[in-house]
Every structure is written in structure tokens, then in C-alpha cells.
Description:
alpha/beta, 2-enoyl-CoA Hydratase, Chain A, domain 1, N-(1-d-carboxylethyl)-l-norvaline Dehydrogenase, domain 2, 4 domains, binds ligand LOHRUJSQ
Amino acid sequence: MARYELVKRSVALITLTNPPVNALSSAVRHAIAKSMEHALNDPKVKAVVICGENGRFCGGADIREFAGPLRGPPLVPLLDAIEAGEKPVVAAIEGVALGGGFELALVCHYRIVHFKARLGLPEVTLGILPAAGGTQRLPRLIGIPAALELITTGRHISAQEALKLGIVDQVTEQNACELAVEFALRAVAKPLSSRRVSMLTTPCPPDLDALLEAVTMQVKRKARGVMAPLACIQAVRAAATMPYSKGIKRESELMATLFNSGQARALQYCFFAQRTAGKWTLPSGAQWNNSKPREIRSAAIIGLGTMGRGIVVSLARVGISVIAVESEKKLLETGKQMVIGMLERDAKRRGVSASLNLLKFTLSLQDLKDVDLVIEAVFEDMALKKRVFQELSKVCRPATLLCTNTSGLDVDALAGVTDRPHLVVGMHFFSPAHVMKLLEVVCGPRSSSETIATAMSLGKRMGKVSVAVGNCPGFVGNRMLKPYLDQATFLLEEGATPEQIDKALEDFGFAMGVFRMSDLAGLDVGWRVRKESGLIGPDVDPKNPPRRRQGRRYCPIPDMVCEQGRFGQKTGRGWYMYDKPGGTNAKPDPLIQNLLEMYRSRYGIQPRNISDQEIIERCLFALANEGFRILEDGIAARPEDIDVIYLFGYGFPRHGGGPMFYASMVGLERVLERLEHYHQAHPDVPHLEPSPLLKKLVACGSPPVQKWREHIKTMHSHL
Length: 719
Ligand SMILES: CCCCCCC/C=C/C(=O)SCCNC(=O)CCNC(=O)[C@H](O)C(C)(C)COP(=O)(O)OP(=O)(O)OC[C@H]1O[C@@H](n2cnc3c(N)ncnc32)[C@H](O)[C@@H]1OP(=O)(O)O
């Protein structure tokens, strides 16, 4: 867990050895304590260097240990003892120094950093605070404003920024450990008192209260309802107003308020869920660690609409040559200008040069014959997509992978019109595709494991969080969206307003309420899907009661909104009104209010007061209920996958963990009871009927999310 060596006859070199990130598990803390004691007591040792094995200093406390009882030496006294020792200690930082790892570096008397290393205190992203003295030492070292920013955001910084801020003593391109040993030898004769950060006086700005107030407001605006950043601010205040001995106690008290909170559990769950999602597995036994992806050097995108443009940018900026295809000259030229602009802005922001030389724009599919992979991003129309896939089959070399960016159409039906169904897979990007991190990789029944591995690995290369899902209408994300949207519109019928529903969801923590999100996405998309699926239009049986379709409750209000040409932000009107087409400032629209009143009086609906609790329960429990069905159907392999999709694609608050984790946190029994209650009140809404899996899990004593898989005995996995 830590290796101890004597080097250069007088330097104790302590190497943390806990792969993959040298996390400070109880065993590592124990080994550090023992090694330090040895070093401080050995008269041969004049100085100490601490480094990490495999080019990684330390990824912080072992997050997996947070769930169990605390064992091993506590971190604060261990770190205090290192700082207080009479022999100079130098941290040799390579790779990462994060969280407790950074706090370990802060108690060392000197810090030598490799130029590629990243440092930071990301505890806030895990729902806790840097409680190993980080909130007390960092402000003393770099001042309140800079420390506040780093601690409340959890941002990682580069070695260069750390040097500029005064956190580290030297940045090197050489081996940081070797340099640190030389540095330590030179430090032997020097006094240590000024190097003990906890002994420094915190440089305090004259307007401390105003500063803290401004940061508090900013944090509340950005992360509504999230506890950890507010606790961080209070801890930093203690660093400014108290001696270290008292400040460290305050830090510990504040940590105690967070450590076992639901938010901390949810955020830590998200950390692991995100990593679990990359570990896809198929019933055939093919999985992430036994399926080799193909190397993708060139790709083609068909269609330069909003999605296509974002996909081109995502590919080109990671060095893949892209041929972009449009059907008309004017569309091609517009698309080209927009892609170039996006890439130039992106490159400027990242301080690199735009990879425009990788792009080619064409009107001819014939130009695609040699590419490694094609992503079709044409209009959401099955007949059109089939024509494109047939054509691609003819022009592309037999080994080219054919992918579709459909947001819900049958990937296998597209595979069926090609000469290579095993090389067809869905790559469902989210808009704007160069910004949104989620990628649903839709595995058709005939997609080969190599094809899936390639799509997953390409997603990772583009910086996406890729989740493998099965093929069904809407896949995972959009399939679950339907009951969520339905509940929101039923609540409108019953007396709520779009503003009220959005506010309840945004107070819950969603980045955007359901109606603001729909306005952003465009209301015409769903309208077209409803027409195509026979819910509206000439196919509807005239004898059908007006608020029922296909034997269940149906709310026609969204169709009425679209009939007025209100398609959302792009038309300047939707569920809200905007200053102009494309505007983003949503204001309540009296015309929508009138429409709702007329609608209710036409159907004799007596509006009632609807509580925020009912809004949250009906929308979110219906969402999770569909998630349970998706697990039963084998469309998602694990609840973690569903949660990751909702966190990265649909703005579900991270501190809620995602719909499935949220359901488990509320208590499955409670979710079941509320769904039964609402289904009784609305028997014509099948989505409110509790799913068999939910009932089964409750009957099994509501196991934690990580154990649900053991209870899913699906015979027909679609993955
Ligand atoms: C017990 C009470 C103590 C109170 C002390 C309070 C003060 C200290 C608190 C902390 O230190 S909290 C932890 C702060 N550190 C972090 O948040 C860092 C988290 N890790 C990362 O950001 C990344 O993993 C990385 C270090 C930047 C490396 O990224 P990379 O992409 O290279 O690898 P990953 O796939 O992310 O991770 C590999 C592997 O390692 C697991 N892991 C990473 N960090 C930790 C950790 N701190 N604890 C436990 N496990 C960790 C990660 O889950 C991966 O494993 P698998 O999930 O794939 O099995």
C-alpha cells in the first residue's frame, strides 16, 4: 500500500501503491503513518519525498470506503503530523493530486509537479467537502477568493495554473520524483516554519462578508438546493475568521452534516454509475473487456441539420477526417459555414487550432466509398432513412460501419435494408451534439459485438458518456420521456400551468422544467411522431372520445399548441413566449392560459389546486416506473445505465442520482404505494400502473439499486 525506500542515503522515499489511482484507503493511510514514523525516527533520514506509483500521485480518499464504517487512521491527525514533523517533506506530484491526495500534498512542505498533472478538490462533486484540512489550508496558501472558487466548483487545475496561484513550488517536464529528491536534499538545512501552511495567516479581503454573500448567491443560482457548496463556503469563512485549530473543528462539523446525507450518497452513486455504464455486456457474453473496437480514422455524416453539424464538430475535434453530405447545394453551403464557425469558436475556446483540414463537404454519396464509418443524421422519417441505408450499402466498402442517429426509430428495420446488418448500430446523440455528453449506443439484435465496441469506443474518444441500450421505440431516454411528458400534460388539464409544473421540477433540481425543455427541443417533433403513430389525423376513429386514444387517456393540448404554429423557442412561441424566434427568455403567455381555460370549460373539467408534491410524484414516479419496465424488457442492462442517461441527456439533477436511484432513495415501498394511489385515481393511464419489477423488488425487501440486477430474470434481453 506504500513502499518505503532510502534513496541518496538520506532521503526516505514513500511511494503510494494502491492502483489504479492510489486512493487513500485505510490500508494506505496506515502504511503512510507507519512510513512517516519510521522516517522521522531514523537518524539517517534527513528529508522525505512522497510520490505515487504508476505516475499517479493520489486520487484522494477511497470513495468506496464512504459507504461503510470508518476504519484505519483518520486523515486529519495523520496529515497534521506530517506537516508538524521536523524533517522536510516534498510531494512529487505526477498524474493527479485530487481531494485527499491534494490535501496530502498541502501538508508537505514543498510541492514539485509534473507539467501534465492535474490538481483539485473535487469533494463538492461528491456531496462532501475537503475535510482533511483542505478548506483551512488552501485559503491560507492562495487567499479566500481563489480558494473559494476551487473548493465550491471542484474544478481540476493544471500544473501551470497551480504554479501561478502559488500552490506549487516548481513545475517540471522531468521525472517529478527524481527532481523532488534533489529538492529535498537542498531543503534539509532550511527552516520549516514558514512552509507549514496551517500556520500561515489567511490573507483576508476587506469585503469578506460581501464576497461570501456574492459567492453564496452564485452557488444557489447555479446549483439549486445543493448542500455541499454552501457548507464549503462556511468552512472557508472559518479559515478567514478562526485559527487553524478551531477552523479544522468547524470543517469537521460541517462535514458531519454532509457525509451521510442523501445528496452525498446520490452524488457518489453518480460517480460510480458513470464508470459502470462504460462496462457494457451482452447476453452472448461479449462485453467491454473482450470485444475489440475497430480503429476509426475517417467518417461521413449524412445531413447537415442541427444534429449533423454537432456530430461533424464532435468527430473533427478529436482528429477524425469527416465527409459531410447534404442533398442540396444551398443546404450544404449553409451547413459548411456553420460547421466551420462552430469548430473555430471551439478551437479558440480550447486554445488550439481548428481542424478544418479534416473536413470535406459534398453532395454525392459516391464520395463515401472509402470511409470507416457513416452516421446518418437525416430527417426523422423511416422511409427516407431506409433509402439512405440502401444507398449506403451500395456505395460504401463492405467493411464500413453504418450508424443511425435516429432518436427512436427501429434500428433493426434499417439494418434489414442493408447488405451488412451486423455492421449497423444506433448512435443517438443529444442536441446540441457537440455539447451534450450523452450517447445512446443502440444495439440491434444483429449488431455484432465489434460494431458495438467500436461505437462505444468512438463515443468515449469524442468525450461522450456512452451507454449501450436495446432497440425499442424511443430506446431508453425517449421511451421514458413519454410517461413523464404525459403526466405533465394531464396535470395541465387538471388545473396546473406550465410555469407551476416547471417551477416544481426546477426546484427539485432539473436544469429545465418539462415545458421549457420541450420548447427548446421543438414541439413539432413530437407532433409529427403523434401523427405518424395515428394518435392524431385522419386515422383516428371519429367515434373515439376526444380525450382518449388507443384505449387510454390522451391529452390533445400539445397538438392544439402546435396547430397554432407554436413550435417552441425557434418560432418565438410555444408553451411560453419569447422575445423573438430563437429567443431563450421564457415568459408566461396569457394565450396559453386562455387556451387552458377554454379547454377545461369545453370538457367540463373543474380545475383544482395541485401541489408541488403531486407534480413531482406523478412526473418522476411515472418516469421511474417506465425505467423498471425497461429493465424488465432488457432494454437497459442496469439501473445505473438509465440513471446515467437521465443525468447526461435530460438534466436530471446529479444530487438526486437519476430516476432509478431517486426511487430507491424515496423508498420503493413508498413509490409503489403512490403509483397505486395515482393509478386508482387515473385507471385509464397504464403508465401509472406499478410495474411487476417494482412490485417484485418491494416484495424482496427493497434491495439497493446495485442489487436489482439479481432480481431481473428477463428471458428476452434486447442487449
Ligand atoms: C473516510 C472519511 C475520510 C474523509 C476525508 C475527506 C477528505 C477527502 C475526500 C476525498 O478525497 S473524496 C475523493 C476525491 N477524489 C476524487 O473525487 C477523484 C475521483 N476520481 C477521478 O476523478 C478519476 O477517477 C481520476 C482520478 C481523475 C482518474 O480518471 P481516469 O479516467 O483515468 O480513471 P477512472 O475510470 O475515473 O477511474 C479508474 C478506477 O478508479 C476508481 N477510482 C477513481 N478514484 C477513486 C477514488 N477516489 N476512490 C475509489 N475509487 C476510485 C474508479 O471508480 C475506477 O474504477 P472502476 O469504477 O472502473 O472499477
